[in-house]
Amino acid sequence: xxxxxxxxxxxxxxxxxxxxxxxxxxxxxxxxxxxxxxxxxxxxxxxxxxxxxxxxxxxxxxxxxxxxxxxxxxxxxxxxxxxxxxxxxxxxxxxxxxxxxxxxxxxxxxxxxxxxxxxxxxxxxxxxxxxxxxxxxxxxxxxxxxxxxxxxxxxxxxxxxxxxxxxxxxxxxxxxxxxxxxxxxxxxxxxxxxxxxxxxxxxxxxxxxxxxxxxxxxxxxxxxxxxxxxxxxxxxxxxxxxxxxxxxxxxxxxxxxxxxxxxxxxxxxxxxxxxxxxxxxx
Amino acid sequence: xxxxxxxxxxxxxxxxxxxxxxxxxxxxxxxxxxxxxxxxxxxxxxxxxxxxxxxxxxxxxxxxxxxxxxxxxxxxxxxxxxxxxxxxxxxxxxxxxxxxxxxxxxxxxxxxxxxxxxxxxxxxxxxxxxxxxxxxxxxxxxxxxxxxxxxxxxxxxxxxxxxxxxxxxxxxxxxxxxxxxxxxxxxxxxxxxxxxxxxxxxxxxxxxxxxxxxxxxxxxxxxxxxxx
Lengths: 282, 228
Ligand SMILES: Cc1cc2nc3c(=O)[nH]c(=O)nc-3n(C[C@H](O)[C@H](O)[C@H](O)COP(=O)(O)OP(=O)(O)OC[C@H]3O[C@@H](n4cnc5c(N)ncnc54)[C@H](O)[C@@H]3O)c2cc1C
Ligand code: SF4
Ligand code: SF4
Ligand code: SF4
Fold this sequence. Notes:
- The complex is a heterodimer of chains A (282) and B (228).
- In chain A, the strands form two sheets. An eight-stranded mixed beta sheet of chain A has the order 3-2-4-5-9-10-1-11. A three-stranded antiparallel beta sheet of chain A has the order 6-7-8.
- Helix content of chain A is 33%, strand content 23%.
- The radius of gyration of chain A is 18 Å and the shape is globular.
- Chain A has helices at residues 18-23, 29-40, 65-70, 85-90, 103-114, 140-150, 182-185, 225-236, 252-275, and strands at 9-15, 45-51, 57-62, 97-101, 126-132, 158-164, 167-172, 177-181, 206-209, 218-222, 240-244.
- Chain A is built from nine helices and eleven strands.
- With 282 residues, chain A is an alpha/beta fold.
- With 228 residues, chain B is an alpha/beta fold.
- Chain B has two domains: 2-155, Rossmann fold (3-Layer(aba) Sandwich), CATH 3.40.50; 163-227, Alpha-Beta Plaits.
- Helix content of chain B is 36%, strand content 18%.
- Chain B contains ten helices and nine strands.
- Chain B starts with a strand and ends in a 14-residue tail after the last helix.
- The mean pLDDT of chain B is 94.
- Chain B: Its EC number is 1.12.98.1.
- Chain B: Pfam families: Fer4, Oxidored_q6.
């Protein structure tokens, strides 16, 4: 099984801007790419997963650095980022839209571009597709059960959530840090994630995630010529610093292990669904 | 030269506007074809006998024998018959026509073309985007059957499209992962996202089929995996 999909190169990287690093989840690659895009004119609007009350997520079209920074960080709940793509073009009048999404959302936008039945004037306005690695996601009430019932932290008090080292981490605004072993979070996963065969956003221009790189750094796969050109410009402009992926720990081996474990587990679920006569995406 | 005709039945001209709204791409398409019939774009009275591609827009009024004849005639004359747009593909808003409307109070039955004659391809959407029309016409000209396969399937099985598909084919089957593509695709804003799932306002849905056609969790053609 192919763990990563096609890619041109893989690097470890982090944003150069300290403010981005402070607010971002990992190496701040998404925020740095977005801010660099808006400031250099490569993008004129970007899709973000904004934070709402109770650490809920809501998709939004952003056009400023402040909006991007306030939406930095991972929300482990479904955020329907595609739902605002058309308003970015129609209402905001954007001509060069930056998109970020989980691997499934990246697949959705690729489908919208290739088969754009209901996407008038959208395909040529998507200037950059960024994908974030994803093992699974949670419905909002699933995330809430993990945070409130297992960690004893109120959703309104959450400032950050993270998954790493086998645990789900919750940080409260009062400074508490609580964890739950991932095995206890499995029952709250979104069921439709179990037919998902993509860990590293294989159809993005640039994919990024925390796994494979040291804390505060991100792993990046550059997949398309467009993505490569964009990343090279970011490096030249000093927006991010990069390291050879082979020079960092734990490196691509861990990404490969996780990608394959997801694919193998979910391939079984897909087969199981077929056996019992349930539909699968075809 | 590939001969193409645009034929119209019960519809609003929106698909024609979409066809014309392809800007410079229309030149590519029209430059490659011979538009042998189109009420609006060409000064010809009769659809010629052997047309390579007929793009037929609109639903068929079953209570109007003239419309039935045009549908049958188009099938006979076309090598490839394309149900263009939601009215021809899925019935769309004409599904709700039940007679008594001016100016023909007796016209009470409207069916999508796909239910009246065998169509080779169906492009849903109200209207379908200019980009999708160009892509389908170019693929048909090039004989790219792999790309066209989803449209061929819709021509066969897609005529009952409705926002309810999201519930019955995706959410009820535990396949919806909440991307929101359906909501963006809906031309009437009948679909909103609620807690990461589509919520369909049935009073607003016109049965254009865009939402379910756009959903990657029903259909995800393999060729999308090939990026650059
Ligand atoms: C559900 C989920 C599961 C993940 N699982 C893994 C994993 O297993 N391994 C791994 O290495 N990485 C995983 N990630 C990715 C990781 O958490 C970071 O999002 C990624 O490393 C980007 O960090 P950054 O510092 O570059 O981005 P930042 O600069 O912090 O920006 C993150 C961007 O992601 C967007 N975003 C946040 N939450 C969501 C969401 N729910 N849906 C869509 N967009 C969102 C925000 O708008 C923001 O623009 C997951 C992310 C999500 C959302
Ligand atoms: S596991 Fe797959 S389906 Fe679930 S949120 Fe992640 S990318 Fe989407
Ligand atoms: S497009 Fe499909 S998977 Fe995406 S939100 Fe709509 S129904 Fe769910
Ligand atoms: S919900 Fe919207 S997109 Fe879906 S069929 Fe109805 S009108 Fe069309």
